[in-house]
């Protein structure tokens, strides 16, 4: 059990490797809502913007292995994407089911679906997966294990090979479906007969049928070296609403995350083309009871459940960068926000005699830009802000800025309903376990999540008196989590007020370590709001909630004697609070010390935040293991569907990749907007040149243009490729120029194929494309030209990626057939986001003082990783 679930605490997580490149998959459909499947606003808009031909719908009548006697005869399941897959999320939606009940102590629930990924086809049933090859059983629990006891009369003929009949009244019949892992070539070793995979556990006769257990030794078929409860992607309970419909995201794993599945492993075909190893997605309907049982408490792999499954083949992009061997890697550095686009463009950027593989080192954009501003060869920088002239010797900015991407920061969430068992209305109770699909945030609510100001965001057992908490009976005026905050319940759907969800993972938001322009933008969003500024300065909100004083911008409030300096380019764990070490004073039940970083660890990256939200992993601390050497806190297993509760800061491309739902943020015009393609494009239309450089655009949160743009998403950010044209390596400059040209032209066509603009981005406005092409010309030529000639780029013939970008004389206007029309930022100027200050309001303003020495500073840039690889996650 989680220490946080029992008000205890746990282990530290510090800076880790940078998140590798993303190749984005499609999003379709929404998640379960009020009484059935509803499409959240951000998902509905996005579904209209990007479509794919690989969506597949399966029905019980046409696609079940055996449709007769199925729990849901009218079941229809839609899988949002089945081809060009990478490590990502896809959405599984259905109709024709029945209203579900959540799992209990001895039952796996009622009227639900189970979903798993398998790698092998069943030779006895072509077109369906082999159940032995499914990643299933890692979560265990009723109705979700690979094995169990049953009666002899309840064993299907198809399960006899895996069954040990009862030997006596005291030894029941045992059935267990073994797991068979793929070898590195993606196929099972042909030397091993199926029965031999269970010989550690069972004895067989010459025909391979199980005849008895092998002595007294018992081998747990749910435990293996390939997947655990921490790494498995199986869904053991996916519930439907009152109308029998539902929808959940599903994590698709490649061989990088699961060697046992081997999906996406490169396979060279007879024509020398390379494809990824395919796999299967299986959906198993579960009703109200199993064979021989009135409850769902037996494995979904046993034949009486398995025979009613529907399945679809999944085709994967081959893992690895498909570039010629020996090609020199070119270095890129800076913004994580462009990582998904670079990964999608990379296969096309490899083509032609001048093609090149690129490696993106994600980290501080400001640091990357300082290097790119010099005259010595450097990585091409990706930034959303202009050069800080105080960090260089030049009096003027020498950098050429080329717009290449348009996206934004996002806040994702996965919070399942947990209505009050007594006080909630019956209609709310009927939706217990189903996900909430809409969540609105104001700048002040975002500030509360970022400043450890809710009581559950601080370590249990630590002194919380500085935020007003004295005891459980006298908790003060700061809410436990955002869900109990009156400001939150006032602006959100009434159903939120009936929820009793509590956890540290909804008392704050997962944030990444390191420094970034993205962090600056989020803090700027907070500071642009008068109420948020006043609250940070020390003024309580209407309910009396105060800022954690260690985050106060007012030096008179901040215990460090200096105001918390904002905006900053990181997410400091500023409060030095610590739960003391009690192992000596209480040897039996004591535990080690816990500070804010160990209690609420950082994610690897912004994209990793969306990954954790997809998995329902709030990064909660586990129990103290006093028998470990040395003693330590464990890690809590992720929450499964029906009980998930986590909020994370991420990016729009990562939210699309992992199919997470995003919060609607209040913009300067007073509207709540999600990061859809239209919302991002509307923000771009409202952008104005930054004060520091007229070629770098910014969505000025306090400006008149932003206040007149009601449909604009407020955390929208452009990304610029930036380099000093005076750098001395002409060949390297030419390679970078060609990347920019491709990105600004062919790379702006939305889609999921290689070379296209993935979901989560909006195409560049045409004026930005012209600026990018002019900057590319300057970088390749080695100097800034006079005003660019009409018609765009004038790159000399012969340069560039010849099979991708033609010479300048043959270039045509950038293609935009699938791009949406320009979204105008229109409307009357709005006033402040909140009412005018009352006479008692204090003077506002952000202290320029340094952050106290006890604050956690930015923790360094991410490690360089190839953009087309993924880190395999293990416990």
From TrEMBL:
Membrane spanning stretches: 12-34, 849-869
Ranges of compositional bias, category Low complexity: 803-813
Coiled coil: none
Keywords, comma-separated and alphabetical: Membrane, Transmembrane, Transmembrane helix
Residue span of region Disordered: 46-76, 559-593, 780-841
Top-rank taxon, per record: Bacteria
Protein name: PBP domain-containing protein
Species of provenance: Agromyces humatus
